[in-house]
Fold this protein.
Amino acid sequence: MSNSSRSRRWARRGIELALIVALIFGLRAWQQRDIVTGLAPELEGVLLDGRAASLAELRGKLVLVHFWAVWCPVCALEEGSIDAIAQDYQVITVAMHSGSDVEVASYLKESGLDFPVLNDPAGVYANRWGVTAVPASFVIDTDGRIRFTEIGYSTGIGLRIRLWLAERAEEKIAEVDAKNTPPGMMPP
């Protein structure tokens, strides 16, 4: 095989790889085209277990907001991770277009899941957040801002890393504020 034929083959592979990468990034951009950014939209209601849930009342804490559906096979792959993360962080999940409260509660019981769930049978919360595909996860910082958004499958470790990064960012912001505050004044 000649050098020019090898070079052409490598050039073709490079072009194919570039097209695959462009396709992946294009698909992700399309999936996230309507997703909200900046300050997290309102999210409040009654959880399936009867407790009140309000994102505004969780200000000052990191929160994972996770949209999912009972009919979503990819969501089913993440359920255990979301359940485990809910033991360590504030988590509000939203069951999107998944049926009645009784149907979603039955699904949770059958699956052995215990994370907090707001049911969204009509997609009201999903529309407010710009969610058109599930699973969709949002890491909300202590100021109520969306720090990370992930559409599609996320590993438990991937979500924990995003939460950890949001914590570190909060610490750095506090550190910078403290350094830039004149003596005798309170940081912002």
